[in-house]
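In response to the reviewer comment on reproducibility (Comment 2.3), we provide here a single inverse folding case reported in full, input and output, so that an independent group could reproduce the run without further information from us. The structure tokens appear first.
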């Protein structure tokens, strides 16, 4: 379900002007090609970096931005000002550009050539002040963009560029994406609701509702041979509980779980959906709540949100795209219960069933247990612990007048207890800066109880993502204190209320 990011390309665009003459412009182009070739050759970029001719006029810039908008696999532009490039040349192009832009503020040479530097060198290498000219016009036009400063051969700079391209791919993936809300929202729940029209305008994806019968129709068409093939995959991939193995007393429940997974996948594929939601309050026609189905489909790249939570389903999908090929994983998650022990306060994250196996520490168990909610047969699920490591939780919230992306950095820890009576997938973490402050800040920000939990991404990914969509970001990290956090919320409220008038 996740596409190879190499199908996408980011264009490397260099700014200059005719003032310097053809010989200088030829050197500018050669330097640009060298940068593209070496960064591409590093193997660090998940997408293709494509050299474009040096831009020296308003017309050429405008045409390039038109071309970028109309080229399907172009997901963004990296701009570098090798010489001084008068910024008025960029206005018309930047006005129409619909793809994200990264300003790489670098220069071809790493060091100053103290003994040989002369005016010819100065005329050619003007990135230090050329980049400031380009920065001004973007700021004057209030353009959101990524700025990366440093030498282009520095691995930290290349890593930042690689990170930005992953985020750009996630933004591109949302454009025209479809998410299926199977059944409705969990009744009377507020935070999982939201304005789907506003979301489509702001983010580019659509969310539409489908009756459970639409899914059941696909489930009922699944044949025995398909089920046998999938169960063989279960047996190879997981440690099956004895009662689910061939001849076990609940083998038929595994067959039904496989039938649901196959039917759900067929429904998603035929509808070209990138994610879905369901709810335990609307299961008519299904034998059990999709447990292992949701877990495995997430591992394949689909977004998922429980109880109709389409915002989290969309965010899970976006973070899956960003993390494609990276170590770790991304999963639907819920803060389930707290460990308020003064010796070490922690959060146990879990859900009824639907935690993605991409965050599993080792081979999951495939088990069946009662759910005690939903009124259906006992569902099959994967049971595992998530590993220790740096992680984060993120949530998109509809605040009425805007969308807010809330992020809490956490330190995941090993689950050392057996939890014999809680047979679900789970993760354990220490929220930054501590549970008391993190929980207070999350609640003050209106954060949802559902999140996307990531072991592969950092806060910078999500800050860049929010920047691309021009939405609010609030970060809870090791430096958070409640007084300042409250003030940030108040300032943001004023800013987003007034921001549409800033350009008056």
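Designed residues, in position order:
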């Amino acid at each position: 379900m996740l596409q190879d990011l190499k199908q996408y390309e980011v264009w490397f665009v260099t700014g200059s002007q005719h003032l310097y003459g053809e010989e200088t412009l030829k050197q500018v182009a050669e330097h640009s090609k060298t940068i593209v070739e070496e960064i591409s050759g590093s193997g660090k970029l998940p997408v293709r970096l494509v050299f474009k001719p040096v831009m020296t006029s308003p017309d050429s810039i405008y045409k390039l931005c038109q071309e970028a908008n109309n080229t399907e696999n172009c997901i963004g532009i990296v701009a570098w000002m090798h010489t001084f490039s008068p910024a008025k040349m960029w206005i018309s192009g930047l006005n129409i550009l619909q793809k994200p832009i990264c300003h790489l503020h670098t220069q071809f040479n790493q060091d100053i050539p103290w003994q040989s530097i002369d005016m010819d060198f100065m005329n050619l290498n003007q990135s230090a002040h050329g980049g400031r000219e380009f920065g001004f016009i973007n700021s004057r036009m209030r353009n959101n963009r990524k700025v990366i400063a440093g030498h282009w051969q520095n691995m930290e700079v290349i890593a930042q560029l690689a990170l930005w391209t992953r985020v750009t791919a996630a933004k591109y993936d949302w454009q025209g994406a479809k998410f299926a809300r199977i059944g409705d929202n969990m009744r009377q729940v507020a935070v999982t609701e939201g304005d789907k029209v506003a979301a489509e305008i702001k983010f580019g994806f659509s969310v539409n509702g489908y009756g459970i019968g639409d899914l059941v129709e696909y489930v009922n068409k699944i044949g025995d041979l398909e089920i046998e093939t999938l169960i063989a995959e279960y047996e190879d991939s997981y440690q099956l509980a004895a009662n689910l193995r061939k001849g076990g007393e609940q083998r038929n429940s595994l067959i039904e779980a496989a039938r649901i997974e196959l039917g759900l996948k067929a429904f998603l594929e035929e509808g070209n959906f990138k994610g879905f939601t369901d709810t335990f309050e609307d299961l008519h026609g299904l034998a059990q709540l999709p447990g292992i189905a949701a877990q495995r489909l997430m591992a394949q790249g689909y977004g998922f949100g429980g109880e109709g939570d389409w915002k989290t389903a969309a965010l899970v999908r976006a973070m899956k795209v960003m993390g494609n090929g990276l170590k770790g994983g991304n999963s639907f998650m819920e803060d389930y219960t707290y460990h308020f022990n003064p010796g070490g306060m922690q959060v146990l994250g879990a859900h009824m069933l639907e935690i993605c196996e991409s965050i599993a520490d080792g081979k999951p168990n495939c088990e069946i247990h009662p759910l005690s909610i939903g009124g259906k047969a006992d569902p099959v699920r994967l049971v595992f612990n998530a590993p220790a490591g740096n992680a984060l939780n993120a949530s998109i919230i509809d605040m009425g007048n805007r969308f807010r992306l809330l992020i809490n950095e956490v330190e995941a820890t090993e689950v050392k207890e057996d939890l014999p009576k809680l047979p679900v997938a789970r993760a354990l973490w220490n929220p930054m800066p501590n549970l008391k402050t993190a929980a207070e800040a999350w609640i003050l920000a209106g954060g949802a109880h559902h999140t996307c939990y990531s072991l592969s991404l950092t806060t910078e990914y999500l800050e860049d993502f929010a920047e691309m969509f021009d939405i609010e970001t609030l970060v809870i990290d090791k430096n958070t204190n409640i007084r300042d956090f409250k003030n940030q919320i108040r300032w943001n409220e004023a800013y987003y209320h007034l921001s549409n008038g800033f350009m008056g």
